[in-house]
Automatic annotation (TrEMBL):
Pfam families: GAF (PF01590), GerE (PF00196). Residues 19-169 form the GAF domain. This is GAF domain-containing protein. GO terms for molecular function: DNA binding. InterPro entries: GAF, GAF-like_dom_sf, Sig_transdc_resp-reg_C-effctor, Tscrpt_reg_LuxR_C, WH-like_DNA-bd_sf. Keywords: Transcription, Transcription regulation. It comes from the Bacteria. SMART domains: GAF. GO terms for biological process: negative regulation of DNA-templated transcription. The keyword Chloroplast does not apply.
Length: 231
């Protein structure tokens, strides 16, 4: 079983990472170190078209292909379908007697055994984690599978928190844009035109020439703009 101290140390390292890729890389490394018999660990994240694309893994290149070149399509992969539907881990100790994984993938990578786990949080699926070997079956114990599940749960929290943080950033950006628009509404049409020309990099002399106004008029209008916008 996973030692509590090791788990909490990993949690601390992950929580110190603001970048999603860096945080998930910590999870991948932890799994690969815990389950040393597996030849590959990969995290696949959902795409808008319903497929799952390789995001980060160890190694990052498989049979000459970069991980992000690999896609799992639930329409062709019964294992992925089952993972998404039931949101439970599935361990296949012998792929030769189980037809659920995509046979093309199994043959291409010569996969002998496979562990697939959903990355879920409150019934929402954020991705799929795959562990497999090339030649010798992993022969995973229940305890080892539970350990990997603990790490994958950590990945789910990381992705969820990243989404929440991104949502807050979007809200903050929208509020800033709304505030700016409200401020711009304080300007008269002419003042707004002066402001927009200034934003384009024109100086007061160039603005006066463009608007066919005197330089003093433009200076006064720019003064009003600065006062209203707090520039």
């Amino acid at each position: 079983m996973l030692e509590s101290s090791r788990y909490y140390k990993l949690a601390e390292r992950i929580n110190s990472k603001l970048d999603l890729r860096e945080a998930l890389e910590q999870v991948v490394v932890a799994i690969s170190e815990e389950i040393v018999r597996c030849d590959a660990v990969g995290i696949y994240l959902p795409k808008p078209d319903g497929t799952f694309q390789g995001y980060i893994g160890k190694p990052d290149r498989l049979n000459g292909l970069m991980l992000d070149q690999l896609n799992v399509d639930p329409k062709n992969d019964m294992l992925a379908q089952e993972i998404i539907t039931f949101k439970k881990s599935i361990y296949i100790p012998d792929t030769s007697v189980d037809q659920r994984p995509d046979p093309k993938i199994v043959q291409f990578f010569q996969i002998k055994s496979l562990l697939a786990l959903p990355i879920t949080y409150e019934e929402e699926i954020f991705g799929i984690v795959y562990l497999f070997d090339y030649g010798i079956a992993m022969n995973l114990s229940i305890e080892e599978i539970q350990t990997v599940e603990a790490y994958v749960n950590m990945a789910a929290v990381v992705i969820r928190n990243t989404k929440i943080f991104a949502g807050f950033q979007n809200i903050e950006k929208e509020l800033m844009l709304a505030k700016k628009e409200l401020q711009l509404n304080l300007l008269t049409p002419v003042e707004r035109e002066v402001y927009e020309l200034k934003q384009q990099g024109l100086n007061k002399t160039e603005i006066a020439k463009h608007l066919q106004k005197s330089l003093n008029t433009v200076k006064n209008q720019w003064k009003n703009v600065r006062e209203k916008l707090g520039l």
